[in-house]
Amino acid sequence: MPQAIEPKRKKATSAEKKRMILDAAKRVFEEEGLEGSSLRSIAAEAGYTPAALYFHFSSREEIYAELLSQSLHQLKDYIDQRVRKRETAGERFEEAAWSFFDFYNKNPEDLSLGLYLFRGGIEPQGVGRERNQKLNQELYDCLAPIAEAAEELGADKHLGQNLMARIFAHSTGILLLAHTKRIRLFEQDPEQMMRDYIEEQIKEQNWN
Amino acid sequence: MPQAIEPKRKKATSAEKKRMILDAAKRVFEEEGLEGSSLRSIAAEAGYTPAALYFHFSSREEIYAELLSQSLHQLKDYIDQRVRKRETAGERFEEAAWSFFDFYNKNPEDLSLGLYLFRGGIEPQGVGRERNQKLNQELYDCLAPIAEAAEELGADKHLGQNLMARIFAHSTGILLLAHTKRIRLFEQDPEQMMRDYIEEQIKEQNWN
Amino acid sequence: MPQAIEPKRKKATSAEKKRMILDAAKRVFEEEGLEGSSLRSIAAEAGYTPAALYFHFSSREEIYAELLSQSLHQLKDYIDQRVRKRETAGERFEEAAWSFFDFYNKNPEDLSLGLYLFRGGIEPQGVGRERNQKLNQELYDCLAPIAEAAEELGADKHLGQNLMARIFAHSTGILLLAHTKRIRLFEQDPEQMMRDYIEEQIKEQNWN
Amino acid sequence: MPQAIEPKRKKATSAEKKRMILDAAKRVFEEEGLEGSSLRSIAAEAGYTPAALYFHFSSREEIYAELLSQSLHQLKDYIDQRVRKRETAGERFEEAAWSFFDFYNKNPEDLSLGLYLFRGGIEPQGVGRERNQKLNQELYDCLAPIAEAAEELGADKHLGQNLMARIFAHSTGILLLAHTKRIRLFEQDPEQMMRDYIEEQIKEQNWN
DNA sequence: TATGAATGAGTATTCATTCAT
DNA sequence: TATGAATGAATACTCATTCAT
Question: Which protein residues have Cβ within 7 A of any strand F atom?
């Protein structure tokens, strides 16, 4: 019986260590920005030798990809949990849009991480092709509740997707301003701006 | 006599050389992305030794900052010229908003450059404090025509600034999506999205 | 009862496993060259963890040494079998010389292995002192049939050894040229060269 | 006038430094064998930072290639000078063959270097394709005096090349034995062996 | 007997920057 | 104003080996 448990335990601690490394990576990301987050610095933060990380991840990029994937899953959970509690489609639409913004507003380290996808040249780089597609899909899934609610409210597929894109764009723009504190230039409150935008969309579609 | 002319000439060519280096830097930016643009590669592209650049710029960051500054000036010129041609305040508002988006949409290398300001940790880093403020001001100046037109149309100062921030945010968000080709996920046309947003703002303020 | 059998079995499988590891090592040698053959790659090819190999061999060098030893035994068997079939001493001399060359010519991976002994600085390195002497003896044993046949034909001990050395040297030189394809430079056929050399020796000693 | 000299001097010292690095590399080769001769170790031996070597050579392989090329040129000079002094074609043949052997026999570090060409898998590796061809040609040039003398003595082209290959092979084989001290196994004197071989060739061709 | 995790030393190469000339 | 040479710190990644389990 102990033998039956042992392997499970080992797996558990292995996963735990992986998680600890990812957490360390996230901290480095947060504190030093993307440039400072080398494999070395992540290893140091995690209390490991650089070489040790290769037992848990096959390359530096894999760490980034897993970190990002984990972040997107947390975002998805955050949104799903909140949307589920809402009763009407209108409320769900509002909640889906707001919580996307809210998650990143409250977790700036995840924002840095998320924006990693939006760096580099025309094509996102530093993450392999298939990995990139997977991440794209995960991002799409986070925003899907927006389209779902919209469709319940009578929107067609194209409008649903349009609303996903709009809300993503507006959120991201505001977060970028807020995150870099440049929003002060305009003496605006990011949360208020986002609320206004969502309300505007609802009014525009005559959903209230 | 030649010696009397020399200093003037030198000053003239000095500015020219500086410009040539910046142009080279922009080309490198364009071709290799921000990450690939080392001081070395800029020097090579400009036909110089890395060490030579230090006669024109005090650090790699200064090159980036000046490049960005130059880009913001070009943006400002682009917007001003187009806004000036419009007769009514309503048209000027529309033009100011559209041409901000349009400039970056057509010049993706300037977008990469502009987003450089929005990287790093919470605080914009890699650019010194006073330089950062100067760049902030230059960005503000580019968007100012939006507020000016809005105020002509009856908006108060706060609303003017709010519109600057909104349009900046929405443009940036769309450009980010378009620039990284992730907009395909949502099957949307970035230009159409931006046009719709501007129209929405005008309708919302009852300016049409 | 099963426990009583176990030790015997284990011993048997232990030798088998050792052999399997050596075979894997040889394959790696063959495919990736000597430089590419790390302990890791050998372990992977053998279906083991690197650490597991340390139960069978005390170091990476020991694997090389045993592999080499095994190769020299195969060479010895190859030569002995063929020499035994020859009836006259003259034929045996010819066969001993030719089959030494022939074995390596047909088994280039064994040649790489054999040349491993002839690398490093002035002193053969990477193989311990006593191991080196053992390998020397094994090499000597492979060439011994040459001297034996020569002595039967009337050569004294010194001439016998001289012929061993000559034939070893000439074979090795030709194989080196052939193995690295540099023999093309001289537009020669390695097998013909070796045959000529052996014939020359026989003529020189007036053994035909 | 001093200005006219300056650039020359600089070039000279630059070449000198290059040479000093190559000398250091040769020493490392000699002392630590090929495996020990990393860029780091060469730099250390030369009294430089690893990075500094990149001002003089574009890669580690270039250092190896230049070292090898330099060694082959020295070999060629050694042979040419000695052959030139001989009056009859017969003497030139003998000298060309002997001095090839003699050079490597007296300069074991050059032998290690030369054997570098004969390592790796079937195809020589670690040196680029065109570099490899150049080195091949240089090796051929070193041996060319053998064929030239042979042709003067009436050999056709094929026989000339055959003699080059034979002498190369025999020399190399003996050197390998001597270099690794395995020649002791056979209680032979390498120089005598080589002399005997050359004499044999001359007798065989009836050139004496 | 075997593994997974870890280390420490090592690999070549790149970087921004400095400095004597 | 410009260069060539140099540095020191950094980059990701590999290696043989060890050890607790």
Answer: A 36, 38-41, 50-51, 54, 59-61; B 10, 14, 17, 48-52, 54-56; C 38-41, 50-51, 54, 59-61; D 10, 14, 17, 48-52, 55-56
Q: Tell me what the pLDDT averaged over chain D comes to.
A: 89
Contacting residues for A83 by C-beta, under 8 A, at least 6 apart? A92, A95, A96, A99, A145, A149
Token reading at A119: 């760096």
CB atoms within 10 A of CB C1: 5
- In tens, the pLDDT along C21-68 reads 999 999 998 888 877 789 999 999 999 999 999 999 999 999 999 999
Distance CA D17, CA D3 (A): 21
D136 and C CB contact within 8 Å: yes
Q: Which chain C residues are Cβ-neighbours of D171 within 8 angstroms?
A: 173
**Under an 8 A CB cutoff, do D32 and C182 touch?**
no
CA atom of D56 to C1′ atom of E17, Å: 19
CA pair distance B30, C30, nearest whole angstrom: 46
Average pLDDT of the residues in B144-173: 98
Q: What's the predicted TM-score (pTM) here?
A: 0.86
Strand E lies under 7 A from the Cβ of residue A56: yes
Query: Cα–Cα distance between C199 and C196 in angstroms, integer?
Result: 5
Inform me whether the pLDDT recorded for A121 exceeds 60.
Answer: no
Contact check, Cβ <8 Å, B174/A179: no
Cβ-contact C22, C66 below 8 angstroms: yes
Helix (H) or strand (E) holding D32: helix D2-36
Q: What is the DSSP letter of B49?
A: -
Residue whose tokens read 């014939």: C199
Residue B144: closest C-alpha in chain A? A186
Residue C168 forms contact with D (CB below 8 Å): yes
Eight-class DSSP state of A47: T
CA–CA separation, C104 and C190 (whole Å): 12
B173 phi and psi, to 5 degrees?
A: -60, -45
What residue in C sits closest to D169 (Cα-Cα)? C173
Give the integer Cα–Cα distance in Å for D135 and D140: 8
pLDDT in tens, B4-37: 444 444 555 888 999 999 999 999 988 888 778 8
Distance in Å, residue C121 CA to nucleotide F3 C1': 41
Domains and CATH numbers, chain C: 1-57 (1.10.10.60), 60-204 (1.10.357.10)
How does the average pLDDT of chain A come out, rounded? 89
User: What b/e string do you get for D115-130 counting C-beta neighbours within 10 Å, with b at 16 or more?
Assistant: bbbbbbbeebebbeee
D59 touches strand E (CB under 7 A): yes
Least-confidence region, from B156-160, C139-143, C180-184, D30-34: D30-34
Non-local CB neighbours of B109 within 8 Å, separated by 6+ positions = B26, B29, B30
Query: Strand (E) positions, B50-145?
Result: none
Compute the half-sphere exposure of residue B26: CA atoms within 13 Å on the CB side of its CA.
18
